[in-house]
Amino acid sequence: MQELIVNIAPNLASKLPDFYKALGDTMLMVLWSGLISFVFGLLLGVVLTVTKPNGILENKVVYQILDKLVSLFRSIPFIILLTWVMPITRALVGTVLYVRGAIVPLVFGSVPFFTRQVESALAELDGGLIEAALSMGSSPLEIIFRVYLKESIAAIARGTTITIVSLLNLTAMAGVAGAGGLGDFAIRYGHDRNMADITNVTVLVLVLIVCVIEFAGGRIVKKNTH
What we know:
Elements: H1 2-8, H2 10-13, H3 16-51, H4 60-75, H5 78-84, H6 86-93, H7 98-123, H8 127-135, H9 140-151, H10 153-179, H11 181-191, H12 196-223
Helix pairs in contact: 3-4, 3-7, 3-10, 3-11, 4-7, 5-7, 6-7, 7-10, 8-9, 10-11, 10-12, 11-12
Protein backbone atom coordinates (compact mmCIF):
# COMPACT_ATOMS: atom_id res chain seq x y z
CA MET A 1 0.00 0.00 0.00
CA GLN A 2 2.82 2.38 0.93
CA GLU A 3 4.59 1.67 -2.38
CA LEU A 4 1.37 2.30 -4.32
CA ILE A 5 0.91 5.68 -2.65
CA VAL A 6 4.54 6.59 -3.36
CA ASN A 7 4.09 5.75 -7.05
CA ILE A 8 0.75 7.47 -7.52
CA ALA A 9 1.10 10.41 -5.12
CA PRO A 10 4.74 10.93 -4.06
CA ASN A 11 4.06 14.28 -2.39
CA LEU A 12 1.21 12.79 -0.38
CA ALA A 13 3.43 9.89 0.70
CA SER A 14 5.74 12.33 2.46
CA LYS A 15 2.80 14.02 4.18
CA LEU A 16 0.79 10.97 5.26
CA PRO A 17 0.79 11.78 9.01
CA ASP A 18 -0.52 15.29 8.21
CA PHE A 19 -3.08 13.81 5.81
CA TYR A 20 -4.41 11.34 8.39
CA LYS A 21 -4.64 14.11 10.98
CA ALA A 22 -6.48 16.36 8.50
CA LEU A 23 -8.92 13.54 7.69
CA GLY A 24 -9.52 12.94 11.40
CA ASP A 25 -10.09 16.66 12.01
CA THR A 26 -12.64 16.80 9.20
CA MET A 27 -14.49 13.79 10.58
CA LEU A 28 -14.52 15.34 14.07
CA MET A 29 -15.88 18.63 12.75
CA VAL A 30 -18.63 16.87 10.80
CA LEU A 31 -19.49 14.55 13.70
CA TRP A 32 -19.75 17.12 16.49
CA SER A 33 -21.26 19.99 14.53
CA GLY A 34 -23.56 17.51 12.76
CA LEU A 35 -24.91 16.08 16.02
CA ILE A 36 -25.47 19.52 17.55
CA SER A 37 -27.04 20.85 14.35
CA PHE A 38 -29.33 17.82 14.12
CA VAL A 39 -30.70 18.38 17.64
CA PHE A 40 -31.22 22.14 17.30
CA GLY A 41 -32.38 21.98 13.68
CA LEU A 42 -34.93 19.27 14.45
CA LEU A 43 -36.21 21.22 17.47
CA LEU A 44 -36.52 24.50 15.55
CA GLY A 45 -38.10 22.78 12.55
CA VAL A 46 -40.77 21.21 14.76
CA VAL A 47 -41.43 24.48 16.61
CA LEU A 48 -41.83 26.36 13.33
CA THR A 49 -44.20 23.69 12.04
CA VAL A 50 -46.49 23.57 15.07
CA THR A 51 -46.56 27.36 15.69
CA LYS A 52 -47.21 28.41 12.09
CA PRO A 53 -50.66 29.74 11.09
CA ASN A 54 -53.20 26.91 11.51
CA GLY A 55 -50.59 24.81 13.30
CA ILE A 56 -51.52 22.66 16.29
CA LEU A 57 -49.85 25.19 18.62
CA GLU A 58 -50.33 28.33 16.53
CA ASN A 59 -48.32 31.25 17.90
CA LYS A 60 -47.69 34.11 15.49
CA VAL A 61 -45.08 35.85 17.66
CA VAL A 62 -42.90 32.76 18.17
CA TYR A 63 -43.27 31.74 14.54
CA GLN A 64 -42.39 35.16 13.12
CA ILE A 65 -39.34 35.60 15.36
CA LEU A 66 -37.92 32.14 14.65
CA ASP A 67 -38.74 32.28 10.96
CA LYS A 68 -36.95 35.63 10.53
CA LEU A 69 -33.91 34.48 12.54
CA VAL A 70 -33.57 31.31 10.47
CA SER A 71 -33.87 33.31 7.26
CA LEU A 72 -31.31 35.84 8.53
CA PHE A 73 -28.63 33.26 9.30
CA ARG A 74 -29.34 31.35 6.09
CA SER A 75 -28.73 34.49 4.06
CA ILE A 76 -25.23 35.12 5.46
CA PRO A 77 -22.40 33.57 3.40
CA PHE A 78 -20.53 31.08 5.59
CA ILE A 79 -17.12 32.71 5.18
CA ILE A 80 -18.60 35.96 6.57
CA LEU A 81 -20.52 34.12 9.30
CA LEU A 82 -17.26 32.44 10.28
CA THR A 83 -15.67 35.76 11.20
CA TRP A 84 -18.89 37.35 12.52
CA VAL A 85 -19.38 34.75 15.27
CA MET A 86 -15.73 34.72 16.35
CA PRO A 87 -16.46 36.59 19.63
CA ILE A 88 -19.15 34.01 20.46
CA THR A 89 -16.82 31.16 19.51
CA ARG A 90 -14.03 32.52 21.70
CA ALA A 91 -16.44 33.01 24.62
CA LEU A 92 -17.85 29.48 24.34
CA VAL A 93 -14.77 27.36 23.59
CA GLY A 94 -11.86 29.68 24.33
CA THR A 95 -10.39 29.70 20.81
CA VAL A 96 -11.32 30.38 17.20
CA LEU A 97 -8.71 27.97 15.82
CA TYR A 98 -8.51 24.25 15.16
CA VAL A 99 -11.42 21.82 15.40
CA ARG A 100 -12.78 23.30 18.64
CA GLY A 101 -12.92 26.76 17.13
CA ALA A 102 -14.75 25.49 14.03
CA ILE A 103 -17.65 23.79 15.81
CA VAL A 104 -19.54 26.98 16.74
CA PRO A 105 -19.54 28.63 13.27
CA LEU A 106 -20.32 25.27 11.64
CA VAL A 107 -23.35 24.92 13.91
CA PHE A 108 -24.47 28.47 13.14
CA GLY A 109 -24.10 27.72 9.45
CA SER A 110 -25.85 24.33 9.50
CA VAL A 111 -28.73 24.75 11.94
CA PRO A 112 -30.74 27.20 9.78
CA PHE A 113 -30.22 25.00 6.71
CA PHE A 114 -31.32 21.82 8.51
CA THR A 115 -34.22 23.67 10.16
CA ARG A 116 -35.64 24.41 6.71
CA GLN A 117 -35.06 20.80 5.67
CA VAL A 118 -37.04 19.57 8.68
CA GLU A 119 -39.76 22.16 8.12
CA SER A 120 -40.12 21.03 4.49
CA ALA A 121 -40.14 17.36 5.51
CA LEU A 122 -42.92 17.89 8.05
CA ALA A 123 -44.89 20.00 5.56
CA GLU A 124 -45.09 16.94 3.24
CA LEU A 125 -47.14 15.07 5.84
CA ASP A 126 -50.77 14.46 4.93
CA GLY A 127 -52.94 16.92 6.88
CA GLY A 128 -55.55 14.19 7.28
CA LEU A 129 -53.25 12.35 9.68
CA ILE A 130 -53.05 15.41 11.92
CA GLU A 131 -56.82 15.87 11.85
CA ALA A 132 -57.35 12.20 12.66
CA ALA A 133 -54.98 12.42 15.63
CA LEU A 134 -56.73 15.56 16.90
CA SER A 135 -60.15 13.93 16.58
CA MET A 136 -58.92 11.01 18.71
CA GLY A 137 -57.91 13.41 21.45
CA SER A 138 -54.13 13.18 21.02
CA SER A 139 -52.15 15.86 22.82
CA PRO A 140 -49.83 18.18 20.85
CA LEU A 141 -46.80 16.30 22.21
CA GLU A 142 -48.25 12.98 21.09
CA ILE A 143 -48.94 14.38 17.64
CA ILE A 144 -45.38 15.69 17.35
CA PHE A 145 -43.76 12.36 18.23
CA ARG A 146 -46.31 9.82 16.96
CA VAL A 147 -47.41 11.60 13.79
CA TYR A 148 -45.06 14.37 12.66
CA LEU A 149 -41.72 12.74 13.50
CA LYS A 150 -42.68 9.08 13.11
CA GLU A 151 -44.31 9.55 9.72
CA SER A 152 -41.57 11.84 8.41
CA ILE A 153 -38.50 9.71 9.14
CA ALA A 154 -37.74 9.15 5.44
CA ALA A 155 -38.09 12.83 4.55
CA ILE A 156 -36.03 13.93 7.56
CA ALA A 157 -33.36 11.35 6.63
CA ARG A 158 -33.16 12.88 3.16
CA GLY A 159 -32.76 16.33 4.69
CA THR A 160 -30.14 15.03 7.10
CA THR A 161 -28.11 13.52 4.26
CA ILE A 162 -28.19 16.79 2.31
CA THR A 163 -27.19 18.72 5.43
CA ILE A 164 -24.23 16.45 6.23
CA VAL A 165 -22.91 16.79 2.68
CA SER A 166 -23.32 20.56 2.93
CA LEU A 167 -21.57 20.49 6.31
CA LEU A 168 -18.65 18.62 4.78
CA ASN A 169 -18.30 21.46 2.26
CA LEU A 170 -18.39 24.04 5.06
CA THR A 171 -15.52 22.32 6.87
CA ALA A 172 -13.32 23.02 3.83
CA MET A 173 -14.05 26.75 4.16
CA ALA A 174 -13.51 26.60 7.91
CA GLY A 175 -10.11 25.02 7.21
CA VAL A 176 -9.02 28.15 5.35
CA ALA A 177 -9.71 30.15 8.54
CA GLY A 178 -7.49 27.96 10.73
CA ALA A 179 -9.77 25.04 11.58
CA GLY A 180 -7.56 22.42 9.98
CA GLY A 181 -9.05 19.45 8.16
CA LEU A 182 -8.86 18.34 4.54
CA GLY A 183 -9.68 21.79 3.18
CA ASP A 184 -6.74 23.35 4.96
CA PHE A 185 -4.49 20.42 3.96
CA ALA A 186 -5.38 20.74 0.25
CA ILE A 187 -4.87 24.52 0.24
CA ARG A 188 -1.66 24.49 2.28
CA TYR A 189 0.09 21.76 0.30
CA GLY A 190 -1.87 21.12 -2.89
CA HIS A 191 -2.41 24.76 -3.85
CA ASP A 192 0.21 26.84 -2.08
CA ARG A 193 3.08 24.40 -2.78
CA ASN A 194 1.76 23.26 -6.16
CA MET A 195 1.49 19.59 -5.15
CA ALA A 196 -1.27 18.51 -7.54
CA ASP A 197 -1.32 14.89 -6.35
CA ILE A 198 -2.29 16.05 -2.84
CA THR A 199 -5.19 18.07 -4.24
CA ASN A 200 -6.34 15.16 -6.40
CA VAL A 201 -6.27 12.63 -3.57
CA THR A 202 -8.04 15.04 -1.21
CA VAL A 203 -10.81 15.56 -3.77
CA LEU A 204 -11.09 11.79 -4.29
CA VAL A 205 -11.36 11.16 -0.54
CA LEU A 206 -14.06 13.82 -0.16
CA VAL A 207 -16.02 12.33 -3.08
CA LEU A 208 -15.81 8.88 -1.47
CA ILE A 209 -17.01 10.28 1.87
CA VAL A 210 -19.97 11.95 0.14
CA CYS A 211 -20.82 8.67 -1.62
CA VAL A 212 -20.80 6.79 1.69
CA ILE A 213 -23.01 9.44 3.32
CA GLU A 214 -25.50 9.38 0.45
CA PHE A 215 -25.55 5.58 0.37
CA ALA A 216 -26.27 5.39 4.11
CA GLY A 217 -28.91 8.10 3.85
CA GLY A 218 -30.52 6.37 0.89
CA ARG A 219 -30.74 3.08 2.80
CA ILE A 220 -32.45 4.78 5.73
CA VAL A 221 -34.90 6.54 3.40
CA LYS A 222 -35.70 3.29 1.56
CA LYS A 223 -36.21 1.39 4.80
CA ASN A 224 -38.64 3.98 6.16
CA THR A 225 -40.61 4.71 2.99
CA HIS A 226 -44.06 3.20 2.94
